[in-house]
Each structure stands twice: as C-alpha cells, then as structure tokens.
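Supplementary Methods S3. Input chains for the assembly prediction are listed below.
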Amino acid sequence: MTPLNTPAAASKVLFVTNSESGQANSILALALELLTRPSVEVHVGSFPPLKARVEKLDSKLNFHILDGLTVMESIATKGAGMDTAMHPPGYKCPEVYRSAFVAVLTFWEDSGSDRFTHSLPGSNDGGRVHAYLR
Amino acid sequence: MQLKPDLVVVDSFLFPGLDACYSLGQKFVWHSPNTPMDLARTHQPWLKGGWYYPAYVSLTRISGVLVHVYLFRMASGIAFPVPWRHFITNIWISILAFYHIYTSPAVSKLIEYRNSHGLPGRFPALTALSRAAHTICPGVPELDFPMVIPDNLGLYGPIVLDTNTVEVVDPELNQWLGRGETVMMCMGTHFHYSESQIKAIINGFLSAVNRDSNTQFLWKLSNKSRFEDLINGVLKHPRDKERFRIVDWLEADPASIMKHPNVVAYIHHGGANSYYEAAL
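Predicted structure tokens for the full assembly:
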C-alpha cells in the first residue's frame, strides 16, 4: 500500500460511523490525524447527532448525513434500553440477548422509515451509504 | 451526492456501511474502538474462543460451520484463566446466547431480508475481518488476553481524541484542577444514574477522603439539573460541596484532562476508549 504521506497517494477517504461517542471518538481521532497529511480529502458520514461535533472539531472535515435512527434511538423505540442490558453475573447473563443485544444487532432493520432498505442495493436510491460510495 | 472515495473506513458497529461496501465491491478498512479480543476471538486455535476465554463478548465460531455471531458484552463475571468450577457455565453461556439470537424473530427477519436482496451470509460484521483490506484496532497486547493476532488485524495502541490541552479548551477547569489532587469520574454517555447511585457515589467519595486534604472530585453527570436538589441535600457541608465539580459535559477531552499532574484516578464505565485513555 502506498503510504498516505506521499503525494502520489492524493486521495479521498470517507469515514462512516455510528454517532454514539463510544463508537465515533476513535474514528474521529483517525480522521483528524489524516487531515494533517498532504493531499488527503477527509469525509465523515454519520447520523445527525454527530454533525455539530464534527464541524466543531475541524472545518476541513466534510460531514455527510446518514439517514435514519441512531443505534440508541433505534433500541429505545424497541423498548430495549440500557436497563434491559443489566443482568447478574454467571449463567443468567445471556438473558441480555433476548432484547438489548438483538436490538443492537438489528438496529437498522426497521425504524419506521426505509432505513433497512436504504442500506441495500436495489432500493429506490440505492441507499444513502451507497450513494456516497458510487 | 457522489463521492467516489478511494477508501472507506467503516465503524465496527455500522453494519449497513459494511453491507454497502460489500455490495459495491468498495475497498474498505474496518475500524473498531474495542479490544482485539472483541474481533479475533474466532481466530484462536482449538476454538479457544468458546471455552478458554471467559464468555463476555465477540465473534465466536463453532467448528468450521458458518455459525458466527457477535457475543455482546455480557459480563459473565468469570475470571481468566477460567476456573474449573466455571468451565461448564462458561460454555453454557455461549450456547444460550446463540439460542437466544437464532430464535429471535427480528434476527431471522433481518437475515432473510438481506439474503433476498443479494447479500449473502448472516450478519455483515461476521465476515468483516476477512473482507476488509485491513482492520484498525487500538489494542495493546500487554493490556489484553494472551492471544493470536490475525495478519490483517493491526494493533495501533490507544487511538483517542486529544485535540487541545485543557488550558486552551477550558481554562477555568484547568485552574480548578490546580487546587489539589483530583479524582475524575465519567461514565458512558448512555449511562443513567439512579438517585441511590448518586447518593452512594457522593457518600463513598467523602468517606474515602482525608478531611484535611484538598482531594477533589470531577464528575461528568449527564442531566445534572435533574439531580440538583438531591446533590444539594447530600452535600450539606460547604467544605464537602467545594470538593465537587459536577458538569453535564466535559469540554476538554478526558485524555487531555488526565495529563494534568493533579489527576490521580479515573473512574469510568469500562468502555474501551476510557480504558485506553487511562492507560496512556
């Protein structure tokens, strides 16, 4: 792979991330680091709650909105909030799979909108993420 | 909007992003903020992922069959190395987890939907490690279980946001930190405190500090205003009240706050970012 700090590697990098801080923080750290390299155009795609943070971090980061509910919003609509993720240690701990885990795993499956189909090829607009990639 | 990026970096939990890359043949790098064990449990010899390591999280593979799944953080409380008396429980937890997932209607619906739209396999994240051009992980071998690291999994040490020094971002906080040794507490954004937890934290801290010391407590408490009365009720004594600085949000990055020499301890929720920030 060509090192990113050589001019030959003039390139466009898109980071796509969930908007929850725990997932986004280290990806944003990487994105900021890439900005310091010459000839790299950095884009960040995420859900609306991350927009203000990204714009405040550095005006050179190009932000793109991904449509739909965030993971936390999605699991809240399914009634599978953090409370359902609590459990005693030991053999009872897989109970968490009944709701919280399944909700995270399938977070983009239904959100009232066409979130799920958005992520798939063949949907009306090819999906928002697809649109950015094409 | 057409970007045509040369490279896409996909967050480990942004599953639709993975599907988009798969279906377009887009070159991508997988990025996880978590520990290498979370990603490479399946890649351990002798299927150790299922029995040798305590059940707590991760991609687990049962024999060569395509039964992959993410095992969410389930905090089994089982120690490592797994004690003999917990050997069966440890395996049983993984089996039960599979059962719950694959009997879930939501999961079946998702898999069916993906498959009928030209996306093979069960969950997009299950094959990410092998399909990504590279995987970026902030792991440090010394801070993790002893394990085999797959070739395309790069461990880069802590990757944390540390944009500006606390003097620049929050001079007032910096001045406050200068008053004396400080314990910082910061749970994840999605942690909701109960009233009894708040009382226990304040009283626990006060009972641990030496009355004559300047030891103080910096606490990120989301929805602080909801607990104002409760806090004022517990912190009756002005001397006690002075020790606390409770804020809704920390303007400065935790990593930069910890660089202040007075910060002696960091209490956090065990999230990987916090873990690495503290380890730095």
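Confidence is low (pLDDT under 50) at residues 111-126 of chain A. The longest helix of chain A spans residues 21-35.
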